[in-house]
Specification:
2 copies of one chain form a homodimer. Chain A is 36% helix and 22% strand. By secondary structure, chain A is of the alpha+beta class. In chain A, the strands form 4 sheets. In chain A, strands 1-5-6-12-11-10-7-9-8 form a 9-stranded mixed β-sheet. Chain A has a 5-stranded mixed β-sheet with strand order 15-14-16-17-18, with helices on both faces. In chain A, strands 2-4 form a two-stranded antiparallel ribbon. The relative contact order of chain A is 0.13.
C-alpha cells in the first residue's frame, strides 16, 4: 500500500541512489566539507521564521497526547529543507565551530505538498554551505557551481547546466530604472516561465507601478543569457545605471569566468533566474537537466547575508542543494538508469551438501576478508540450480568447493569460463567487484 | 536550543558516526545484504498491529489540517523500528524480490519516550534481516551473530559479547515443567535483571500459576550460561523433558558452535535472555558492551515466523539490529572516541596573494583529482597565519605555491618537515589521507 508522495525504491534502484549519494559525498569531502546531520524536527517558530515559505509543515504529536491541543510555537514539526536547520545549528554551536565553516548535509526532508511527478512529500537533499562570522568573501560564490559540476559530472545522467544570476543585478537594474518596489518586480518576473512575458508585463504595470516602457526593460533584462561575460555588454546596452547593478554584474562575471576555466559549458549567466525564497541577497543558482527542463530545477541555492543571525552575531553564507530524490525520480520514471545487479554479492559459494556448510562458510570468509562480497548458497542443490540462483540475481561468479582434495574452482557464469582457484588469493576483475551503475 | 532526546553531533562526532556507519554497511554488503530504505511514515494501524509494543508513536498532521481531528487507522505516524516497515515492504513487493531476501537498512527511527541516558527519541538503527517464502533454513540464525561480530569487531570500541537464547528452550522447558501460560512465565522471567530472582519467583507463583518448585526451576534455567555447548548438560540436569525443548537446545547449540569457530568468545548462550517483543519465535539475540552493561543491549533481534504474512503468504525471517546512536551516545558520554581531525581536508593550499587564487584553485583541483581532500585558504595571508588555519582544524599539510618559476612545496605542520612537491604526483601517506577514528 504505497503512500502518495513517499517514494520507496526496489533494491536495484536503491543501489543506484546509494551510488549517487556516495559520489556526491565523496566530491563534497574532496572540497573539504565536513558532514553534519541535524535532528528531523524543529520548533514551529523556527520553521516559520525564515521568509515567506509556503512549504506545508508536518507537525508531530505523540499518540497519547490530547489531539485537540492547538499548534503552539514550541510544537515540533519536520524540517522542510536543510538550510533553516543549518542556520539554527550554526547559531547554537557557534562557539564550537571553526569559521569559515564548510559543511555538507545529506538528509531527508518533508513537505506536506500535493504530490505530482518529480515532487515528493519525503525526499533526500544534499546540501553544501559555507558560512563565516560577520562577512564571507565573494570567491566562495564562484566555488559552489564547480563543486556541483564535479559531483553531478561523474554520474551517468544527462548533461547539467547551472544557471546563475545575481539579485543585485536585478534590484540595481529595477532601481536604476526608477522602480521602487524591487521585491514585487522580482516576484513578478520570477513567473516568466509559468505565465509568459505578456502577462508578466501586464502584472508589472498593475502591481509594481511600472510604466509599459519600464516593464519592457525588465523583460529585456530577463531575456539576457550568455556562457561568458558578454551578458555585461547586453545589460549596458539597455542604458540603465546603478551602483548595485555594477556590483552585481562584477560578481556575476566572476562566477561565470571561474566556471569557464573549470568546466566549459557548465554555467550560464541567465538573468531571468530569481529563486522564490526571499532570504537570498546576491548570487542565485538553479540547474537544468538536459531533456528534463520542463520539470524545473534539480539543484538550487544562493548567497544569504542574514539567514543565520541573532543579536549582534551574524553568519552570512552561500550554499547550494541537490534534490537527489527529485533527480532520481525523474530518471527512474524514464528508466534511464541501470545497475548491473540488484545485490552487492560478487560470488556465490555453491553448497555441494549440507554437511559441507562449515567448509563453504570458511571459503566465503576468506573472500570477504579481501573485500569480495560473498554469499553461501542457501541450500544444498545440484550445481545447475546454484548457477540459476546466481543468474537470477546477476551475481557474476559461482565458487565450487573441490571434493576429496581437488582444488576449488570458480565459474564466470556470463562467459561460462571455469578455472581452478584458491580463496586465499583469487580476486575478481575490479569492474566485477561491486555493481556497476550506468545509463540505460 | 537543543531538544531533549533529539541528539545532534558536532562535526568531529559526526565524522565518527559516519565511520561507524560506513564500517557497518561495508560488512553487511560483504555478506551480500542489499540496501533498502523505507519511508519514515506508516499508517497507524500498521504501526500498532505487531504485538504489544509500548513504543510511543509520533503522529503527523499537516499544519493546515484540522487539529481536532481524532487519530484514525490510516493516519500516518513515524516508524519506531525498521522491522515492522520491512515486513510491510516485503509483502508489498514480494513479486519483485528474490528470495531468500537479504536486506540491510540503516535509518533513523522515532519514539516519543521519556529521554534518559543512552535513550533517544530520534536515533539511527542498522538492521539486517533475511526472509524467505514459506520457510527459512535455520542456518541463517547462526550467521547473524557472526556478521554483527565482524561489523562491530573492527570498530575502536570495547569488546562486545552477543548473548543468545532460544524461545523454544524456554517455552519447551516451562511446558515440560507443567506450566501452561508460557508467555506469562517468559514475560516475568524477562524482568530478572530489573527486579531480581526473589521477586520474579513471587510473581511466577502469583501470576503464572507456578508452584514454588516450578518457579525455582525457571530461575535455575535462567541462571544457565556457557560459551560452548555445555549449557545443554546443565539444562538436562534439571530433569525436564519436552520435544520443543529438545528442538530449541539443538538450534541453540548450532548458533554457539558456529560462533565458536568464527570468533571465539563472541557469543554466549545466556538462558535468561527473552526479548520483550512477542513476535520472536526461536533464536533471540542481545549484545552487551564491556563496561557499559548497565545500559542494556546495544544490538538485538531474533527469529520471527509470522511477522510478514498476509492471507496464505508467509515470509519467516531472522534479523538483528544495531542501535548505532545508542552505542555512540554511550561512548561519546565517556569521551571514549576521537577523530584525528574534525574536517575531511588533508591539504590546505596557502594563498600568497588574492591575484593568485586561480593558480591555487588549479593546484587544489590537481590534488582532488587524485582523491586528496583539499581546500584553498579562504583569504590571502602571511604563511604563519595559514599554518595556524590548518593547525586549528588538525589539517596535516599546507601547500605553498612556488613564486617566479620556483617549485611548489608542501609542509607537514606536525613535524615541520617541508619539501618540494608537484601537485600532479605528490600524495600523502595513506594514514593521513582521511581522518583516523580511534579509541580515546
Amino acid at each position: 500500500m504505497p503512500i502518495s508522495g513517499f517514494p520507496e525504491w526496489l533494491p536495484a534502484q536503491r543501489q543506484i541512489e546509494q551510488f549517487f549519494l556516495d559520489r556526491i559525498r565523496t566530491t563534497f569531502e574532496l572540497y573539504g566539507f565536513a558532514s553534519i546531520e541535524t535532528r528531523a524536527v524543529e520548533p514551529l517558530d523556527t520553521l516559520l521564521s525564515k521568509g515567506e515559505t509556503s512549504k506545508e509543515v508536518y507537525l508531530l504529536r505523540r499518540l497519547q497526547e490530547d489531539p485537540g491541543a492547538p499548534a503552539s510555537d514550541d510544537q515540533l514539526g519536520l524540517h522542510f529543507d536543510l538550510t533553516v536547520p543549518f542556520a539554527r545549528y550554526v547559531l547554537e554551536n557557534a562557539g564550537k565551530l571553526q569559521f569559515p565553516f564548510r559543511r555538507y548535509q545529506i538528509q531527508k526532508v518533508w513537505r506536506g505538498e500535493r504530490p505530482q511527478e518529480g515532487r515528493y512529500r519525503e525526499f533526500i537533499q544534499a546540501d553544501i554551505d559555507v558560512v563565516n562570522r560577520d562577512s564571507l568573501p565573494f570567491h566562495f560564490d564562484t566555488e559552489m557551481p564547480l563543486i556541483i559540476g564535479d559531483a553531478l559530472g561523474g554520474l551517468p545522467i544527462p548533461r547539467v547546466r547551472i544557471q546563475v544570476n545575481n539579485r543585485k543585478v536585478c534590484e540595481g537594474f529595477y532601481r536604476g530604472l526608477g522602480l521602487a518596489d524591487t521585491d514585487q518586480v522580482l516576484r513578478t518576473v520570477d513567473k516568466l516561465d509559468k505565465i509568459g512575458p505578456a502577462r508578466v508585463a501586464e502584472q508589472l504595470v498593475e502591481t509594481a507601478g511600472a510604466t509599459r516602457a519600464q516593464a519592457d526593460a525588465c523583460l529585456e533584462l530577463a531575456a539576457i543569457s550568455s556562457e561568458d561575460a558578454s551578458f555585461v555588454d547586453a545589460v549596458r546596452k539597455l542604458g540603465v545605471t546603478d551602483p548595485l547593478l555594477d556590483e552585481g554584474l562584477d560578481e556575476l562575471v566572476q562566477v561565470v569566468e571561474a566556471a569557464r576555466e573549470h568546466a566549459p559549458g557548465l554555467v550560464t549567466a541567465e538573468l531571468k533566474i530569481a529563486r522564490g525564497l526571499d532570504y537570498y541577497t546576491g548570487t542565485v543558482y538553479e540547474t537544468q537537466l538536459e531533456g528534463y527542463e520542463r520539470f524545473g530545477s534539480i539543484t538550487s541555492g544562493g548567497r544569504y547575508e542574514n539567514l543565520a543571525s541573532a543579536g549582534n552575531q551574524r553568519f552570512p553564507g552561500v550554499g547550494i542543494s541537490i534534490g537527489v530524490s527529485r533527480l532520481l525520480g525523474l530518471l527512474f520514471g524514464q528508466n534511464a538508469l541501470t545497475a548491473s545487479r540488484p545485490v552487492p554479492t560478487c560470488v556465490v559459494v555453491a553448497l555441494p551438501a549440507d554437511e559441507r556448510r562449515a567448509e563453504c562458510d570458511r571459503i566465503a570468509g576468506q573472500l570477504r576478508k579481501r573485500g569480495i562480497p560473498t554469499e553461501v548458497a542457501p541450500t544444498a542443490a545440484k550445481f545447475g540450480k546454484q548457477i540459476k540462483f546466481a543468474d537470477q540475481r546477476g551475481i557474476p561468479y559461482v565458487w565450487f568447493p573441490g571434493a576429496d582434495g581437488e582444488p576449488d574452482s570458480v565459474k564466470d557464469i556470463r562467459s561460462g569460463d571455469q578455472a581452478d582457484a584458491d580463496a586465499a588469493t583469487w580476486s575478481p576483475p575490479d569492474a566485477d567487484r561491486h555493481p556497476v551503475i550506468s545509463a540505460a
